[in-house]
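As noted in the main text, all predictions were made from sequence alone. Below is one such record, for NAD(P)H-dependent D-xylose reductase (XR).
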Amino acid sequence: MSKTAYITLNNGIKIPQIGFGCWKVTKETCAQQIYDAIECGYRLFDGAMDYGNEKEVGEGINKALSDGIVKREDLFIVSKLWNTYHHPKNVSKALAKVLSDLKLDYLDIFYIHFPIAQKFVPFEEKYPTGFYCGPNGWEFENVPLSSTWGAMEKLVEEGLVKSIGISNFTGALIEDLLRGCKIKPQLLQIEHHPYLAQPRLIEWVQSQGIQVTGYSTFGPQSFVELDHPKVAQCVPLFENPVITKIAEKYNVHPGKILLRWATQRNILVIPKSNKKERLLSNLTVNELQLTDDEISEISGLDINLRFNDPWDWCKIPLYI
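Prediction:
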């Protein structure tokens, strides 16, 4: 059993509240980082087709399995359906590719990465595709989200995926999906940090029995290496006076305060680190108890600053 707390999904499955995020983990270091994280006690690994490192994630997982550090049933392996595979006939192909890369028989969680259906691109043409849709630039497919979700539900029925979720969805899209689904989403993954707190979305989604996973918990820190232009619009959260004051009070790194701000509000988090001591520290954030006033003070930093916005890619009106 991992050192972290577990949260129960609406299908009865319990998953770790603190996982390891695989976004931006380089291929050169990925397998060893995954292996080390498992040794440290991590059991949930949040990956995606778009991250381009699933083969290496699989190498780390399978080495840990073969070395007897952990059993497969103790791990919770996550991936996400990329935009170019939304058509129902391509959803199962996408999962087969993921499982082949990971060298696993099933996934624990499979998300729809974005509610955006791009034109299908064959694996042999380009993989991962990113925003590539072919020589004509951005192209889209007329695929309703309900059709994609129906194909996701079939993966559960076939035993290839245990839980399914949605990522980067708005409340209206979720409400529409709930009207016609056979299987309610188990999770919603969203950008979530004090500069983008999204309290109303989180309150409503949790009221529907859907667990929320926050990514980019450290806000602008997650986007510095991407040279994101919005990073300059705010003080780094690790240096924000509100965060540093609370961190000094508890004698912890500011990152631990940010993680606990999320987990204390029943949100799952997926930080990553190259440092073993930080990996271990992140797993113990729930030992810290912030006051209600501190939670409110951190939440008060919200300025609706979104870094991961499809409008910036191709004027896709997801959040307007």
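The longest strand covers residues 161-167. Residues 6-307 form a domain with the TIM Barrel fold (CATH 3.20.20.100). These features were considered when defining construct boundaries for the mutagenesis experiments described in Section 2.9.
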